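FAQ: What does the model actually see?

It sees only this:
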Amino acid sequence: MQIALISDIHGNLPALKAVLAELKAEGVDQVVCLGDVALFGPQPRQVLGLLRELACPVVMGNTDAWALSPRPIEVRDEDSHRFYEIELWGVRQLSPSDLDYVRSFQPTVEMPLGGGMKLLCYHGSPRSNTDAILSTTPDGELQPMLSGCQATVMAGGHTHAQMLRRFGEMTLINPGSAGLPIEPAPSTGRMRYPPWVEYAVVAYQAGDLRIEFRRTPFDGTALVQTAFASGMPHTEWWGKGWTGE
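And it is asked to produce this:
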């Protein structure tokens, strides 16, 4: 059994196509999406359409839930205002059918791995899709996020950072972001979006459990060009994140 975990696609169609092509060539048994599918990228409808064709389980991310009930956010600075307007634009691209599909997303997804082992998937934590589980989150803060849940592997997204850590008898992982990975730019130190897809594969065979973290490249230049042609607001500011400027 091989299960691929993708998360935080954020309207990035070239990245989603790149990872799905790789997974199809490998012949994985199942794909699970950990949420935050459509918003903050130039192709929200197209990403939802491709994911719907895949017919894989999808977890409800915080931006997915927001798309179903958009509301003003606290504007702390100019960047947060840009985030809000880009995400609101994304919601306005979605059809009633798209929104019905988003409503089908689940708070958690549980899957057997074999040998009595199981995988529990969520977005932020099983408690809330806005919780952030990091490698540095103290055990005392982590305990209430996972209260009442038990699985061999616990998998969530939300932080856009690949992670593996132990908590009791459980292994906690984050596959990273399939559409909006984040790292410091080498030249400036400012945060940028590197042109690769992050994901993970959980595999179980003959008593052996294996977890692999992966990256695969995609055409970031084409993504930025698509954004400029899409009508998405603040595209010049958004595109600088992909160049590290």
